[in-house]
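Tokenise the fold.
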Amino acid sequence: MTQHGPHRVAVWVVAIGGMAFAPAAFAYVDLSTGSMLIQALLGAIAVAGTVARMYWSKLVGFLRRDAKEDASEHDR
């Protein structure tokens, strides 16, 4: 585990404090912005699913290979 100095904690405190006490922004969010956010969310879900499937197949392949090696050693 890495060591974090007190200056790093102070940066986080200032950043979170700055966001907590920021004045309200009365901004207009266009409909296309909402559509863009939905597309980004769906893209992130697709990427997460692809990564999970890739690592799942690697894990299953590793476990099956290990089980085959155990079976071949048992047959000897």
